[in-house]
Specification:
The chain is an alpha/beta fold. Helices cover about 40% and strands about 25% of the residues.
Length: about 270
């Protein structure tokens, strides 16, 4: 099974469990920030990268009369969401597109607000961010959220721990580095919020085990790495008995307007 198919299979399972993408422990935090953005900026068209947590998606739809486009890699997740909520009034304002984030099936400048939460933990970020930028109106907004490294974890100890624990893991960053990445991709920083969430890694790893059937060598490597970096994991993330404190960053960015010399040119 190739990596893309592995990711799709993982997302189909996570849609039912909400263990990884938009887990329930973060929903209240996300709701508060999203409502604030919708009320203050009043986007006419919202594009959501992935359905994610169905309850959060339902909540977003109920907060606005905006036209909402949901780009979801899993056709199975789209069908389940539509079947569950087909008789809700908000469904008349939603369009679903089954597609991936590296070939983002949304028109140029389609979005006043694009919301991307957690998916770029398992999808290469550079190509996806390029596509997000293309889909956002000039001076449109990008709300981006994902776990980040503790500010003192300069060696990326937690990043490597996740890479060993989870075959689909990509990269984690310091929050300050995320701002730099978006600045280089023509997004201006507006505001950001960081919270700490307690993660039960036993439950999460049981879910990983269901999906990937780890062998003994994996378990040995994880145990060895955990022992070698026990102090850093405890100091930065209060790692103990398979629970840890995970920093989560949610940032609001604005797509930079083209220089007047570039306006009207195809780039």
């Amino acid at each position: 099974m190739n990596t893309e198919q592995m990711a799709l299979d993982f997302l189909q399972g996570d849609y039912k469990r909400n263990m990884f993408i938009e887990p329930n422990i973060r929903i209240d935090f996300l709701k508060k920030q999203i409502v604030d953005i919708i009320n203050n900026y009043k986007p006419g068209t919202i594009v959501k990268a992935g359905i994610g947590n169905k309850d959060l998606m339902k909540f977003i739809c109920e907060q606005t009369d905006a036209y909402i486009v949901i780009v979801e890699p899993s056709l199975d997740a789209i069908i389940k969401f539509k079947n569950e909520f087909f008789n809700n009034d908000f469904m008349k304002n939603i369009a679903f597109i089954n597609g991936n984030f590296h070939n983002f099936p949304a028109d140029y400048y389609a979005a006043d607000l694009l919301i991307s939460l957690d998916y770029l933990q398992i999808i290469e970020s550079s190509g996806a961010i390029d596509e997000f930028r293309r889909a956002i109106e000039f001076e449109g907004l990008l709300l981006f959220g994902m776990p980040v490294l503790h500010e003192d974890d300069l060696d990326g100890v937690y990043d490597e721990y996740l890479r060993i624990s989870f075959p689909l893991h990509k990269d984690l960053y310091l929050a300050v580095d995320l701002k730099t990445i978006f600045d280089l991709n023509e997004f201006d920083f507006i505001k950001g919020e960081q919270e700490i969430f307690e993660i039960n890694f036993s439950e999460r790893e049981e879910f990983f085990e269901e999906k990937f059937s780890f062998d003994d060598s994996y378990l040995a490597e994880k145990e060895k790495y955990t022992e070698e970096h026990k102090n850093d994991l405890q100091n930065f993330y209060t790692f103990s008995n398979n629970t840890l404190s995970e920093p989560y960053y949610l940032g609001l960015f604005k797509r930079r307007k083209l220089d007047s010399k570039m306006e009207g040119k195809i780039i």
